[in-house]
Amino acid sequence: MYAFNDKILVVDLDDKTFETLKPPIGYYKKYIGGSGLGARLFIDYGGLEASPLSKNNPLIFMVGPLTGLTYPLAGRHFACARSPLTTFWGQGSSGGYWGAKLKKAGYDGLILLGGSDKPVYIVISNNDIEIRDAQGLWGLDSFKAEEEIKKDIGDKKFSVATIGQAGENRVLFAAIQNDRGRVVGRTGLGAVMGVKKVKGIAVYGDREVSVYDEDMFKRRYYESIKKVRKAPATKILRTHGTNALFEQIYEYGDLPVKYWSLGVWDIEKIRKLSGPSMTQAILRGVKACYLCPIACGREFEIKEGPCKGVSGHGPEYETVAAFGPLMLIDDINFIAYAGDLCNRYGIDTISAGSVIAFAMELYEKNIIDKNETDGIEIRWGDKEVVIKLIRMITFREGFGNYLADGVRRLAERYGEQAKKLAVHVKGLEFPMHDPRAFESWTLAYATSNRGACHTYASTYYIEKGLTFPEIGYDKPLDRFDYKSKPLAVKKLQDIYEFLDSMVMCRFHLYGGLPIRDVLDTFNLATGWNLTVDDALLIGERIFNLKRWINNKFGVDIEEDRLPEKIFIPLSEGGTKGHIPHWNEQIYEYYRLRGWDERGIVKKETLERLDIP
Amino acid sequence: MYAFNDKILVVDLDDKTFETLKPPIGYYKKYIGGSGLGARLFIDYGGLEASPLSKNNPLIFMVGPLTGLTYPLAGRHFACARSPLTTFWGQGSSGGYWGAKLKKAGYDGLILLGGSDKPVYIVISNNDIEIRDAQGLWGLDSFKAEEEIKKDIGDKKFSVATIGQAGENRVLFAAIQNDRGRVVGRTGLGAVMGVKKVKGIAVYGDREVSVYDEDMFKRRYYESIKKVRKAPATKILRTHGTNALFEQIYEYGDLPVKYWSLGVWDIEKIRKLSGPSMTQAILRGVKACYLCPIACGREFEIKEGPCKGVSGHGPEYETVAAFGPLMLIDDINFIAYAGDLCNRYGIDTISAGSVIAFAMELYEKNIIDKNETDGIEIRWGDKEVVIKLIRMITFREGFGNYLADGVRRLAERYGEQAKKLAVHVKGLEFPMHDPRAFESWTLAYATSNRGACHTYASTYYIEKGLTFPEIGYDKPLDRFDYKSKPLAVKKLQDIYEFLDSMVMCRFHLYGGLPIRDVLDTFNLATGWNLTVDDALLIGERIFNLKRWINNKFGVDIEEDRLPEKIFIPLSEGGTKGHIPHWNEQIYEYYRLRGWDERGIVKKETLERLDIP
After folding, report:
1. pLDDT category, B508, cuts 50, 70, 90?
2. What are the residues facing B133 on neighbouring strands?
3. Structural fold of domain B440-609
4. pTM of the prediction?
5. Chain A (365-394) residues lying within 8 Å, Cβ to Cβ, of chain B
6. Quick one: pLDDT at residue B466?
7. Chain A within 8 Å of B138 (Cβ-Cβ)?
8. Gap between the Cα atoms of A522 and A502, Å rounded
């Protein structure tokens, strides 16, 4: 098929063999690629029977039809597995070059089965696959491991995905990084890679994947590049990175302060952390993923203070928020340093920042004290303590060992007072957006298959003024109105699932390439003729397939609840007095989805969507 | 008041001060002593607001009116606190001499508040209280710490309660041991002591507590001693210890085999572990608690195999079952060694054996594998692995770190398959009795305030032939009949709560001192004039007070459920085909208790029982 390789590489780590799978054509038609096709293959390879931290949990890396083509914003890849953090469906995606190179090596995906007894790394070079000893690399951080693997191969053209010490130690929110700073951050897939004792995966390929209409596709590439360059969001993202709109996000009340308990903070402190301040203070250069004209990636260098001279990648908005206002820190130098440290150790900055901020609240409320925390006084804004805890999490030392299990399990250690304060859905820590600020986060967080997630159904863009006319949203929705949201969230989830099955960067939506545009490109590349309705149906199928998997893993309405703390209205700030309307929306949403009142996918829905 | 000291010693570990509390007389009248009065004081000292592993969790040691008097079977003491294992009400009791000495030192109880920065031990010698540095003792096992503290004090008359390394490391089922082998085993109170950094508590006192009718009481003492000596159970317990009826328990199907999955095992193996075999193989001597003519305690010495020459205390029935058939081990030498090791490290043998056996099942079912277990193959019956895991639990090393959190939390790491196999109520691992064998265990386990517990409402004695005519049970109940059980369990719970508030060893009931007898003794000692109905009312009040505390901690019907695994009928053995009837009993029990359908104590019930 055009735009696909029709091949998945399956590596069996138990006996160090590999084979090439040619998925049935129906799989591609029904699930395209990315996390959609990943979910389907997950079932075939025993994912439903495997527990998250057994080596039988298949770890699946997927690209899509647009990945690696000469087309902007299509350089990403997905990783999927059962999440050790939530115990439910887990997935995450990352930018850089790794995905494009996997595609050009001739594969639409890579499935890791079983586990090795001793540390290994995998080299995929076009059709040449090698599993090499990595005992000398075990214990290295994720950047250092990447460097050593490249050195070992002796060819800088390779992209390498690695785990740091956190993945080795099965920190439940361990990440998989690639290309020195790009990260599959969420749901702890680094721990799955750690259990398999795979330290790294190096890929390189130079095959061009053919597309259906080469000429038109080439022309479209140049047009698309122009469109992206012209889009206002591009300039903003290029200049100030994903943290560009920090102040605006704060004004909406969307930015959490003091672990979701305050509506306002000192505006001067907010300004110190905003994109423009960050640009001025620490930006050394920008960094683009494969063929991306936006280049939202940041390279920083700290120019003053105790960390002077330290340089690295980031920080993204999520990191600035999590290590900033969430824990009452207003020092961008420190945040850049902390975020970089998380990348090196290989832990998700959202979960890490959240669990540390949560510990600060537990400490303040006397739910824990220093006799439980190895003598450490975990006070709001204490930067030295934060660095110490990041290290203790990574190595599972003392109290860090409990933090390494995430917010939900930490709370469960201390009973119902703590549970009432813990902010997560399905065990995944909230990203840095507040459902009190945009009603659409309510259902987006509640029903996202991987737990509280800001990248599925960012309906809040509609609330902020962006339109999606292709799917019926040609004007903004009121951010506090909840009646319009069940349908909007459902539709956005469906279209996002489709877009993710092609594996595109989310920023195309805001960067000049709306849904219609990308769909046309997809049709040019594949020679298919999908309509928006087809796309919605495919997205709906994928979303429901993952929900069905989650139902098998024990998810029902109880796991769709928002945390109690988020129903406490804030007395000041952009969300003053507003709370999410979960109760008022959830059953309508279930009805629209074709799920029963317990949140279980109905048989007729599975049949309608042709899910086996 | 006669038989009471009217004094509780309150030690504040934050500022190393202490004071003497004189509880209101109404407290004694309403809750007597033991865990009843302990629960009342727990509320006064901030227990409801404290999380289990904060130093604010008050750790309360209690004795009762009969403790330390010249009377048999009254040498025990209770410890109470919020349980780190369940996060709900926690309590346990222990024999030996420690309780009698605390009473004779002039106290009805000891409350530890706050926590020390550095390890300390406490010396209570009549009215002389000292808090001493214990930095040199931190890291010692519980026996060695007892020895060193005695040496340090220079007076062998002291009894010492200590924690081992498990309590220091906050293993969630860490125990508090005293008198070289007597143990407050359940609900993890050793971890609470560890958080407070109290390594040991040495007590000695020589005051005689006066009783109401000295002459009659003295005469009653001699009569009681005779009665106990004559009781058939005494001879059995003295000769073979608590493990005397191992075979009989197996015949009923009450003994769990292969982590609650098999109904039968090789009868020769069962015989090898029975009391008589144990007596023959390893008994070196018997050991009695304060003034106890039964002396069920065992001193063992291993006479062959790799542990030849090792001697120690135990093993009790629970330990033999947990480290025996539960994990398919039939070597009594090994079991004695493993149990002794648990005592030294300071961990509960029931929870430790359970969590290890559970790990064996997870390993067999591929829910975990050796890449998650630090390379250890956790196979059924592997004795070397068991010893290794006991150590790893104690020091929270690697995979042992997860085991140290108990069965419930271990299961939660691995999702719904694991949760379906985990055998606990409220997070407390089942003791070694199977609800499929005696229907009364169903409600006893479901509703005991500390979680699955065999010492409250051992209604199964009625099912096995013992009678309690004072409370209306003058003939045995059928063991598989469930209709009679809600009332029987309620009544037994109430009377047991009363007996525990006096602080008596359970064996008086089977050892010649039935309820009537003990109640008369109580009246002689105190000068009160309680009837059996009064006793039942006091017991009911205490039971409901603890339930009310648990409601505050989040307990409702969801926490009263039995584990799914126990509803799978066994195809062979003494319980063949029978499963517990939880659904059929629970609402009737709630009705009898005056709780609502969610298991919450109704306001009118609190008022009726005069609970504030």
Report:
1. confident
2. B120
3. 1.10.599
4. 0.94
5. 366-372, 375
6. 85
7. no
8. 8
Q: Write out residues 86-115 of B within 8 Å (CB-CB) of A.
A: 87-88, 115
Judged by CB atoms closer than 8 Å, whether chains meet at B419 and A196 is answered as no
ipTM attached to this prediction: 0.90
**Residues of A whose CB is below 8 A from B396:** 401
Amino acid at B254: D
What stretches of B245-348 show up as alpha helix (H) in DSSP? Answer: 246-252, 267-273, 275-282, 317-322, 332-345
Gap from A466 CA to chain B (nearest CA, Å): 39
Distance CA A77, CA A91 (A): 11
- Asked if residues A150 and A229 have their Cβ atoms less than 8 Å apart, the reply is no
Q: Which of these ranges, A211-220, B253-262, B511-520, has the smallest mean pLDDT?
A: B511-520
Using CB atoms, pick whichever of B51, B170, B417 lies closest to residue A417: B51
Residues of chain B with Cβ-Cβ distance to A554 below 8 Å are 415-416, 419
DSSP string, B342-405: HHHHTB-HHHHHHHHHHHHHHHHTTSS-TTTTTT----TT-HHHHHHHHHHHHTT-TTHHHHTT
Dihedral (CA of B591, B596, B600, B601) sign = negative
Question: How far is C-alpha B71 from the geometric centre of its chain's CA atoms?
Answer: 22
The secondary structure element, H or E, covering residue A156 is none
Cα gap B301→B309, rounded to integer Å: 6
CATH 1.10.599.10 domain position(s) in chain A: 440-609
A208 — pLDDT class (breaks 50, 70, 90) = very high
Residue B166 structure tokens = 């498990």
* Percentages (nearest 5) of helix, strand, coil residues in chain A: 45, 15, 40
Q: Please, which residues have CB within 8 angstroms of residue B474's CB and are 6 or more apart in sequence?
A: B467, B468
Per-residue model confidence as pLDDT tens digits over A332-369 = 999 999 999 999 999 999 999 999 999 999 999 999 99
Locate A427 and state its tokens.
């065990």
pLDDT in tens, A423-475: 999 999 999 999 999 999 999 999 999 999 998 877 788 888 888 999 999 99
> Which fold would CATH assign to domain A8-204?
Aldehyde Ferredoxin Oxidoreductase;  A, domain 1 (3.60.9)
The partner residue sitting opposite B368, judged by closest CB among A53, A82, A366, is A53
**Identity of the amino acid at A16:** K
Does B417 touch chain A if contact means CB atoms closer than 8 Å? yes
| Cα distance between residue A504 and residue A103, in whole Å | 14
Instruction: Locate A553 and state its tokens.
Output: 């893993």
- For residue A54, give the nearest of B54, B366, B412 by CB distance: B366
Hey, are the CB atoms on A371 and B195 less than 8 Å from each other?
A: yes
Contacts of A182 (CB under 8 A, 6+ apart): A94, A95, A96, A98, A289, A297, A313
H, E, C per residue of B457-521: CCCHHHHHCCCEHHHCECCCCCCCCCCCHHHHHHHHHHHHHHHHHHCCCHHHCCCCCCHHHHHHH
CATH architecture of the domain covering A239-416: Orthogonal Bundle (1.10)
User: pLDDT, tens digit, for every residue of B342-392?
Assistant: 999 999 999 999 999 999 999 999 999 999 999 999 999 999 999 999 999
Q: Half-sphere exposure (CA, 13 Å, Cβ side) for A92?
A: 27
Pinpoint the residues of chain A covered by CATH 3.60.9.10: 8-204
Q: Average the pLDDT over A231-238 and give the result.
A: 91
Q: Mind telling me how many Å the CA of B566 is from chain A's nearest CA?
A: 19
